[in-house]
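User: Hey, my collaborator sent me this sequence without any context and asked if I could get a structure. I don't really work with proteins. Can you help?
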Amino acid sequence: RFAKNGTTIEHSQVDRKVGVGSDIGALAVIGEVTLTTNDYVELWVTNETNTATMTWYKGFMSVRPVKLV
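Assistant: No problem. I've predicted the 3D structure and written it out in structure-token form, which is a compact way to encode the shape of the chain:
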């Protein structure tokens, strides 16, 4: 899920179940957040089923500004 200033944003959580250790699959996380000067956004990833190491194989993050009228 996304986090703003270190606090996770509940509605941005996405769960993905991996079939086997060599499984590679896509995952999209989408969310909206209002930012002001010095705010920051993070992507938090966690393994909630066991202590196995996770590997981030490839990723892309896009942030798009929206001007409020």
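In plain terms: The CA atoms of residues 1 and 45 lie 7 Å apart. You can pass these tokens on to your collaborator as they are.
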